[in-house]
Amino acid sequence: MVLHSTAFHARPGHRYQTSAKPVNRPKTIKLLTSALLGLATFTSALASFPVEEPLSSKLAFNTYVDTDADSLANYRAEKEGFHRWSRERGRMPRYDDKLLDLDYGDLNALHSTDVHGWFQGHTKLSPPEPSYSADWADWASFASNMRTKARSEGRDLLLIDTGDLHDGNGIADGFPRYNKDEPGGKEAVDGHVSNQIFAMVDYDLLTIGNHELYDFSVAKDVYQNFVPQWGAKYMTSNVKIALPGPDAPNASYAPIGSLFHTSVTPVQGLKIMSYGILFDFKLAANGIAVQAPQDMVQEDWFNQSLDRADKWGVDVFVILGHMPVSGDAGWEAVRTKIRSRFPDTPIAIFGGHTHVRDCRMMDSQTMALESGRYMETIGFMGIKDLQKRKRAGNRGKVKFTRRYIDANPRNFAHHLKLNSTRQLATKKGSFIRFIMNAISEAWNLSRLHGVVPQDYYLDRVPYGDNSSLLSLLADQVLPKVVRPSEKSRQDRKSLVLINSGSQRFDVYSGPFTRNDQYIVSPFKDRFLYMPDVPWGIAKHLLHGLQTFKKGTVVEVMQGGTQYSDGDALLRYGSGFIEDIFVRWQKSQWFKFLQAEKADRQVGLNHTNVNMKSVEQLEAEEDEELLKFFHKYDSLDKPSLGYCTVDQCAGRGDDTVHSPVPFYPNQPEYVASNPNPMPESDDEVVDVVFVDFMRKLIVDLLNRFHNHHHHHHHYHEEQKQKQEQEQEYGNVNDNGTCFEEKYHVDELKRWGDITTQLLYPRFAELEWQPRQGVVKAVAAQGRRAGKMGYAPLDLQTHFHLEEQLDTINNNAFLSSVTTSSTSSSSQQGITFKQIHSTTIASSHST
To answer: Where is this region: Disordered (predicted)?
Structure first.
């Protein structure tokens, strides 16, 4: 879709211009191909020797090899090369899902947000993952075909994204590490290459997320290499960057993108005014300035943009924002300001950031939509009666519709009224998949560490359950991976502590590759230790961490941390949204239980049905219901997935699901106790923990040290202590100065382990199937098939995946560098022709 547009774009050297010409962006395929060829050179350094069974059981259980994970991995690399797992595309959703259609309007929008690098989609076999099995190629094909469909029906369609493009998947974050002075070093930043994959979908309106702003080098890469591809369509109304850099003596701040954007739709000529807004983000890198939305709407340029919209005769405001549609006062400030000038002009708001599916009507003519996370959801909004309103001189009401589309090929084909997912594919989509697979191989993301024998969940089961990931972490991973990693301290007992927030995603059964380590634990925190702590002090640390409310450590991506005072607004301003997402999951689950319990009572012919509140259900924790819904997907009820309850009318989800269970009472920290346990409180142990917790751990050690030595006076003198603290500062339990026995500078590095390496090393030790990888994965596939999840249709226009499955990496490297493929030649099309076909038209099908 090409929009005729004008914009106010305050980049240095750019003037305020009005143009009737289409906004043209550079051909991103050329940029990506160039990047790919550079990356291909890197693959020559990677040994790759395909074998029938990449991880043989005789190596996994070889008695002549040291039994630590690194020795096993090194042994395999030396004897057989790096073992790879040819990327599988996951599964189709369950065959019997009931689907709901989209309710189209005159103006329609498809919305992605918080992709976080999930360009290759969800590839695991366990539910609900097959419901989100679309990759970026499927999405590109769906978007292209939806444009064609909209045009043929006389409708307009916008493609919209609201930020956070990386941090959370290998294809965005797993690039080779170069020094800045090496070739490719300047481009070795998060998202540089994956942004080019993203750019192969022809979006109409975009804005920035906080994950583009934690690191100045990332933000500058976005400014220099990503924004120019979009022109004024990429909006950052309240985000500026220091140029040429934050430390330059003559630095000046300029918007990263345009301040606003005006466009006219190609089919109906609808006039659209747009803005791109970020929440009031407080943890941006030095050299990035974020203005609160409440202050932004008072700026002269914003008032002038409203003047322009009034003179122009705007038909609809389309406002993008990387902030949640519920709970952020910034949206109300923007809406109120616009309503002061345009009392009844339709406003469509597209949010993001908190990873939830949400919708609310801010007034009768304003809908706000948030569309999930991780390529699980494509949001849809339709606005009806815009043409009718336009013909009446911009008078009259419009009607909004919304739908949350499960991102998978089956649902995409359904909404296009196609008979088969094979009809979904486009030439561009096939090329995108080829490029993604090539990058995955070049970056060694397909390296296989092991095969996970079962599913492990973060919050689907209670802590202590055999399927609890946190229980696995505490009982197996910490003692078998972290404790042995410091060779010099193996003669000492140790307590190992870790925060549950270091785990970001469930671990599903199936191949565990290098890419999975970026998904499950994207943080790269090192482990530290405080040596020789009396057990009488150390044994209180876990409880202290769970109950200590005065301070809270907030961790964000790219190594950022903040020690907050527990204030929810400060946590939100830092970009920390996990607690918000957990509260949303909790609310969704208990609202389902509320409805389910009422239905049960009606089914039992109870004349007086008492609808219990969500709070009552939460307090009861109905074990019968929990056990029932903790079971695997079964064919006697809908498949697992989102069952969204939002604030807009009607059902939002396009697929009828049973909800994914949620168990709220998960520990914030877990520990692996010494083995064997200390015999007395005076026996000393090493306290091992993740490095970003260091201030909190040292604080607790000192508190428990004082408590331990003044135990008999502790309870009776608390009141006196509090009074003296107010007057004199920190005091100990005897009313004297607080003794700081432990100091941060005493901490030492514990081995070479990081949180991101926990599961790869554990997989090398424990997830080695005796029957071999191929047979183990095949058995898992058969189980998925019996549950109704069929393999995805892999056929594409050029059969690129078939070729990658049958040639080794040397042949692959040759095929890329010579710009031709044997499978493409069989179709009479070369690699160069694929390139040309892709950039010739963004709408080819």
So the answer is: 709-733
CA–CA separation, 424 vs 416, rounded Å?
8
320, 302 Cβ separation under 8 angstroms: no
Q: For 448-577+667-766, which CATH superfamily applies?
A: 5'-Nucleotidase, C-terminal domain (3.90.780.10)
Report the residue count for the chain.
845
Q: How far is CA 715 from the centre of its chain?
A: 46
Residue 464 neighbours by CB under 8 Å, 6+ apart: 471
Domain positions in the chain are 4-36+91-438, 448-577+667-766
Calpha distance 642→662 (Å, rounded): 12
Contact, 807 vs 815, CB < 8 A? yes
Question: Environment class of residue 729 by beta-carbon count within 10 Å: exposed (0-12), middle (13-18) or buried (19+)?
Answer: exposed
The owner of tokens 């906080």 is 210
What is residue 275's three-state secondary structure? strand
Dihedral sign (CA 384, 390, 391, 392): positive
Report the range of poorest mean pLDDT among 411-420, 439-448, 531-540.
439-448
Q: DSSP code of 176?
A: P
- Tell me, letter by letter, the H, E, C secondary structure of 352-367: CCCCCEEEEEEECCEE
Nearest-angstrom CA–CA distance, 488 and 683: 19
- Whose tokens are 């990888």? That residue is 773
How big, in percent rounded to 5, are the helix, strand and coil portions of the chain? 40, 20, 40
The correct CATH number of 4-36+91-438 out of 3.60.21.10, 3.90.230.10, 3.20.20.100, 3.20.20.80 is: 3.60.21.10
Residue 87 is predicted with a pLDDT of 60
pLDDT tens digit sequence for 280-306: 999 999 999 999 999 999 999 999 999
